Amino acid sequence: MFYGCEHSDLKPTNGEFAFVGSLGGLYRLLLGCWRRETCAPRLQDKWSESNPTCGQCSITSFLVQDIFGGEVYGVPNGDGSFHCFNKVGDAVFDLTSEQFDHPIEYTLDFPQKREIHFAKAEKKSRYETLKAALMGKRGPHDSQ
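-> structure tokens emitted (144 positions)
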């Protein structure tokens, strides 16, 4: 289960995504949305169906922000990049934490900006692909 799963009952603040139900519901839906093509290019050779969260952190974190609000933060990776996670109210969580086989130290020292991440066209495209896959999970009874 993901880091911060004790907040699984967190509810969406954006009505467009009410169909996800909760943070835990979003996680379960994303398990069927994360793909090699939504994985960061530098990690695609490590992505697999048994490790679906690999390389999905930034696009997932900004999608979470669209659904639940809050802020996106990063943990420095040592190569100039950041592993992204979310903070909504007092809840800190990382839907993509399962890709690591070691603990991550989550601090709020490095706020991340959408404009900087999405300045990379490939990353924005991966985000849009992930969002479209999630929206495709809506049932016929869900509002459009």
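Strands lie at 71-76, 82-88, 91-93.
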